[in-house]
């Protein structure tokens, strides 16, 4: 019994700073995905929205907000929130109803409008909230966490700031021809190293921005796809949304400490490793079969961590892959052929879906100007606040 | 003058000659947590709900470190007087003998050049900022050696 579902349509609103309402972007992406699938909105029987937490009540009930904007069609509705993994969790909800036979056509939409600068916590004193306390007691920003991971790579594996810069150079090149990317400009190692240091060792150009953007995916049963005339659709083989296993011994944003390993012992896999491992296990596909990966490069150095977390190479070897050009399009295992967050900036509830859109285009051979030749299997990965993370594995 | 020095947050650390972070130890499975907890034991194999205070090791080893070259946004409280320039500060995540890693600012006067993964540090108490009640104190990590370089791969990657 196959647990596959078909990706019949994908669509995005270009990332940027457009100054519009998140609903506008979401509807744009939804209509693009429906047109791509050649399925009318009136045939959709489930809509799942990715919640945005910065846009009032309409954002909290994003699924219904998008449904109303598209015109109430009687579809069932759900809304998901899982930080950076929001889109994947929404996708998983749609997949589960399809596999249960409770739904034929599901539309999954994530959209966001984001503030300028650092993502700071909401106003008001909250002495029991680590996301507030980390700023108040430590001045610990998001880039500071990314910098901790980057520095470990330098002290443990001999990574250099030039390696991190090279990740940016690669991703900037990948994103040049991507019509949905916000930044489409070549960047040199000197540009990165010449930009201001935000949190040592990371420069401004090592760290991703925040963006407006929206992405949408139309999921159906494989049966429905066949009846719709698509015999070999891109298939979702796995959606991993696992939580950490105690003790989580890696310092995670926004925490001030880790769990203690003294009693329970250090777990077999770190949280990020376990996210990917669960996707591979569910799909019955191994890292050696992966053609490309879309990973959450909140910082350049984090892309190197992800390559290892996805078991695309051994721990400490990601710099060697990078330097050899293996992670560049045309190399052995291209990473972030879309240009990644480096070219997009982060639009939280849309980002995990954007990763799925890119992998779908790659597997269909439609990624004009950034195509990974012969791509058969693609994997996505991200991690967000409070035990959220996801990995989606797709194949043709 | 009624100005005093008080912790910026109640009950997270002791002050005095040998200050220490205060954690909670589960009375059922002995797992230690920081910050203190009064809820449920985080060990999935334990249903403990009772905790006793325990002082954490004052010394540990650097898991990683960085700094804040730009002034963090509120609720961070600026430490410099108006009109004066912002002074960057270093941050370190430190592994303690309790198997727990704890973030903290690095003691005043030290920067990333004084730090290295695996270096030993000691917990100290310094002033974080001042408000109408006086100095507000915070725990910080004081580098104990800035010489020896840790061998690559010496640290586990757990
Ligand atoms: Zn316990």
UniProtKB/TrEMBL annotation, chain A:
UniProt keyword annotation of Transferase present: yes
Protein's UniProt keywords contain Transferase: yes
Source organism: Nocardioides psychrotolerans
Domain of life: Bacteria
Residue ranges of every copy of the Thiolase N-terminal domain listed in the record: 26-221
PANTHER family: ACETYL-COA C-ACETYLTRANSFERASE (PTHR42870), NON-SPECIFIC LIPID-TRANSFER PROTEIN-LIKE 2 (PTHR42870:SF1)
Domain Thiolase C-terminal, first and last residues per copy: 276-392
Gene3D superfamilies noted in UniProt: 3.40.47.10
Protein name: Acetyl-CoA acetyltransferase
SUPFAM superfamilies reported in the protein's UniProt record: Thiolase-like
Any matching Pfam family: Thiolase_N
GO MF annotation: an example: acyltransferase activity, transferring groups other than amino-acyl groups
Keyword terms of this UniProt record: Transferase
From TrEMBL, chain B:
Domain ChsH2 rubredoxin-like zinc ribbon: 17-52
Residue ranges crossing the lipid bilayer per the database entry: none
Record domain ChsH2 C-terminal OB-fold: where: 54-125
Superkingdom as given in the UniProt entry: Bacteria
Record-linked PANTHER family: BLR3430 PROTEIN (PTHR34075:SF5)
Name of this protein: Benzoylsuccinyl-CoA thiolase
Lineage: Bacteria, Bacillati, Actinomycetota, Actinomycetes, Propionibacteriales
